[in-house]
Dolichol-phosphate mannosyltransferase (Thermomonas haemolytica), 248 residues
Amino acid sequence: MPDSLQLSVVVPVHNEEDNVAPLVAEILAALRGRIDFEIVYVDDTSRDATLARLRELQATTPELRVVRHLTNAGQSTAVRNGVKAARAPWIATLDGDGQNDPADIPALLAKRDASAPEVKLFAGWRVNRQDSGSKRWASKFANAIRSRLLRDATPDTGCGIKLFEREAFLDLPYFDHMHRYLPALMQRAGWQTVSVPVNHRHRTAGVSKYTNLGRALVGIKDLLGVAWLIQRSRRTAVEELPGQGGPR
């Protein structure tokens, strides 16, 4: 990894052609001159001009890298592949629809710098949701059930903007939709997590990739699976004993 890079911004996208350029511009405005960073977009087999727009932006944006899925794999896989491709020790994630505000990333970084080293995840908390009423209700209901079952002390796990340590993330168990359970998974691994209030915006272009019913049906199975993982988790401190024979 380049020694100078401090942050990789990972953005998964699928059919977001009209959101790519504005979001890249906002990331640059938020981070240029503040920190050494890169932007890693992961295109999950978009059928529109998303990939073409990204390729055009690469010509004028040296920070921008593009990873392309050869088959459709979903958001969690896109996030994981973006993190694997990233070259910085810390990762910030954003949804590709523009509803997350890149201007919140410096606040997450400041919160990290003021926190104990045991805190490996800073999760965005949408205190002023700009979604439809039905979507807000469904999210509130799902968050309540998740919080009661997993006891992860996190008011909003569905927010796309997060800041976490790359190494800690890659050590987590991987499964589809895991991005919705990062606080519980980080806590299961023995790390601390913090929720940070962030801005939330209306989608201005494109359409949502999820329905309330579809998200709920998948979420039930995922929630039970994560609860099982937590119950079966075992952790212990380890130490390496010094050798007695000297160097060989």
In short: The longest strand covers residues 119-126. The chain has a mean pLDDT of 88. The longest helix spans residues 212-231.
